[in-house]
Amino acid sequence: MRHIGAFSTQPVFNVASIRQIEKALFSFEGNSFTVMERAAQALFKHIVTKWPDAQHFVILAGAGNNGGDGLLLAVLLKQAGLQVLVLDCAHSPRSGDALRAFEAAQRAKVNVELFSIEQVCSAAVVVDGVLGIGARLPLREDLQCVVHWINQTKHKGAAVVAIDLPTGVDADTGYAQQCVEADLTISMVQLKIGNLLGRGGIAAGQLINDSLGSQSIMAEMSLAGGQLHWLDVRQFVKQKPCPRYLDSHKGSYGHVAVVGGDHGYGGAALMASEAASKTGAGTVALLTRWEHVTASLVRNPNVMAFDAQQEQVLSLGIRNHCVLVLGPGLGRARWGQQLFTQMMALSLPTVLDADGLFWLSQDSEVELPIGSVITPHLGEAARLLGWQIEQVNRSPIKAALLLARRYRCVVVLKGVTTLVVNERGDVYMAGKSEPVLSKGGSGDVLSGMLGATLAYYKDTLEAALMAVSWHNYAAGEMAVHKGVHCGQPYDVLDYLD
Ligand SMILES: NC(=O)C1=CN([C@@H]2O[C@H](COP(=O)(O)OP(=O)(O)OC[C@H]3O[C@@H](n4cnc5c(N)ncnc54)[C@H](OP(=O)(O)O)[C@@H]3O)[C@@H](O)[C@H]2O)[C@@H](O)CC1
Ligand SMILES: Nc1ncnc2c1ncn2[C@@H]1O[C@H](COP(=O)(O)OP(=O)(O)O)[C@@H](O)[C@H]1O
Ligand SMILES: [K+]
C-alpha cells in the first residue's frame, strides 16, 4: 500500500474569501486603484501576447469595477496605438474606482458609446468587462441582450476575452443559464469556483489567473471555510495509476472483486472488471449473473468470472483485504438488493457506484465500510440527498460535502469537472470537458479503475484523485486517437500505459 507522493494544487476561493483577499491587498498596496491599474496591465499583456496581430478591440464595460478594469485596459490599448471602442453597458451611475477609471478613459480620449444591440462589430477581439464577482443572477434583461450580442460577435469570428469570469456565471458555483462563451478568461487575484465548475468551467475557455501581487499576502491570511483545490490532472500522468515495482508479485497490487451485471446489464460489470485489471489490480474477480460468465471469460480470461448465486462464490471470488466494486449493472431487482446486503455485511472497502447507490438511498440505516468511495453523478447525488437535480447542479460542493459527512466516505461527484471530497471537508476539482466520455459505460470504467487504485493506495482520497485524473486524461488521449464518436468508454483503458 503506497502513497502518491507530493503533488501540487492551486487554491480556489468563494467570493467572500476573494473579497477578504482583495481587502488585504488594497491595504497592503495602500490604494485599490493601483490594483485596478495592475489588473489592466495584466489584461493588456495577456491579450496582446495571445493576439499579437489584432488591431481593433471592442470592450463592453459595466458600471462596477469589472467595467473599471475594462476601461483602464481601453486606455492602455489606445496608448499602444490600437483602435478601441468602449460600449458602455452601465445602467447605474459609477462610483469609486470604476468612476476614476471612466474619467481616465475620457482624459485619454477613448471612444465610448452607449451599448446598443444594433451595434455592428468588426473588432478582432471583444472584451467582456460587464460583470465580475459582483454579479447578481439572474441577469437583468438589458444585460441578457449584451451577453447575446457578445456571443453573436463570437460566432461572426471575433475572439472573446472575459475579465475575471464570463458575465452570467455565478462566481460561487459555476452555475449559469445564459452566459458569455469566452475564448480566454483572465481571472483576477485568485481562482474562483465559478472559473472551474459547471458551465463556468466550460464558458471560461482558456483560463489564466493573474494574482496581481496577492501571492505575497496569501500566507498571512486566515480565511474562513474549508480548503478548495484545483488539481491539474496532467501532473499525475507522470506516474502510472498503480506504478509497478521490480520486487513484486500479483499479491502486491491487491485483489478487486466487481459485483454486478443483472440480466441485460452484463456489459457494465464486464467493463468495470476489465478496467480494474488494466489499471493494475493484481487479481480481479467478477461476481455476476451466470449468463455473463462466458462473455467475460472470452473477453478477459485474466478476470475470474463467477456466477454470483453459487454458494461457494464468496470464498472463491472475495479474499481477505480485497476491495469491492459494487454496483455496475447491479439492477434494482431482488437479485441486486440481495447482493447489496450481502456485500455490505462484509465490511470491505467498497467503491459504490450506479445501482449500488440506488440501494444505498433505500436504506437509511446502512453504514459504509471504512475506506469506501461513492461515485454519484448529479442525479444519483440528488436521490441520496432527497434534493432536485437542479439543486445539486447549483450547489455541487455543498452536495458533495453533505454526502461525505453523512456516509463518512470519499465522494466522487462526477461531472464535466469532477469533485473529489472527503469527510474532513477537503475539496478537489479535477478534469476538463471530454465529451467523448458522455456515453453510457464511462462511469462503469471509472469505478473499475477506482477499485484498482483503492487496492493500491493507502489513502482513499489519493486513490480517488488518481483514478479520476487518469480517467479524464486518458479520455483526452483516446479522443485524439480514436475520435470522439468512435472512442468507446473501455477504449480509455488503452491509454493508461
Ligand atoms: N481595484 C479594484 O477595485 C479591483 C477590482 N477588480 C475587478 O472588480 C470586479 C468586482 O467589481 P464589483 O465588486 O464592482 O462588481 P462587478 O462584478 O463589477 O458588478 C457590480 C456591478 O454590476 C451591477 N450588477 C450586478 N448584477 C447585476 C445584474 N444582474 N443586472 C444588472 N446589473 C448588475 C451592479 O449594479 P447595482 O448593484 O448598482 O445595481 C454593479 O454596478 C472583479 O470581478 C474584478 O474584475 C479586480 O480586478 C481587482 C482590482
Ligand atoms: N463532457 C464530459 N467531460 C468530462 N467528463 C465527462 C463528460 N461527460 C461524462 N464525463 C465523465 O464520464 C463519467 C460518466 O459517468 P456516469 O454518468 O456514471 O456513466 P455510466 O453510468 O453510463 O457509466 C463520469 O466520470 C463523468 O465525469
Ligand atoms: K466579465
Automatic annotation (TrEMBL):
Needed co-factor(s): Mg(2+); K(+)
SUPFAM superfamilies attached to this UniProt entry: Ribokinase-like, YjeF N-terminal domain-like
Pfam families (UniProt xref): Carb_kinase, YjeF_N
Signal peptide: none
Binding site for K(+): 66, 128, 167
GO molecular function terms listed in the Swiss-Prot or TrEMBL record: ADP-dependent NAD(P)H-hydrate dehydratase activity; ATP binding; metal ion binding; NAD(P)HX epimerase activity
YjeF C-terminal domain boundaries: 233-497
EC number: 4.2.1.136, 5.1.99.6
Gene3D superfamilies tied to this protein: 3.40.1190.20, YjeF N-terminal domain
Chain ranges of the YjeF N-terminal domain: 18-220
Co-factor binding details: Binds 1 potassium ion per subunit.
Keyword Methyltransferase carried by entry: no
Reactions it catalyzes: (6R)-NADPHX = (6S)-NADPHX; (6S)-NADPHX + ADP = AMP + phosphate + NADPH + H(+); (6R)-NADHX = (6S)-NADHX; (6S)-NADHX + ADP = AMP + phosphate + NADH + H(+)
GO biological process, one term: nicotinamide nucleotide metabolic process
Quaternary structure and interacting proteins, as annotated: Homotetramer.
HAMAP family assigned to the protein according to its UniProt record, in alphabetical order: NADHX_dehydratase, NADHX_epimerase
UniProt function note: Catalyzes the epimerization of the S- and R-forms of NAD(P)HX, a damaged form of NAD(P)H that is a result of enzymatic or heat-dependent hydration. This is a prerequisite for the S-specific NAD(P)H-hydrate dehydratase to allow the repair of both epimers of NAD(P)HX. Catalyzes the dehydration of the S-form of NAD(P)HX at the expense of ADP, which is converted to AMP. Together with NAD(P)HX epimerase, which catalyzes the epimerization of the S- and R-forms, the enzyme allows the repair of both epimers of NAD(P)HX, a damaged form of NAD(P)H that is a result of enzymatic or heat-dependent hydration.
Family: Belongs to the NnrE/AIBP family. In the N-terminal section; belongs to the NnrE/AIBP family.
Name of this protein: Bifunctional NAD(P)H-hydrate repair enzyme
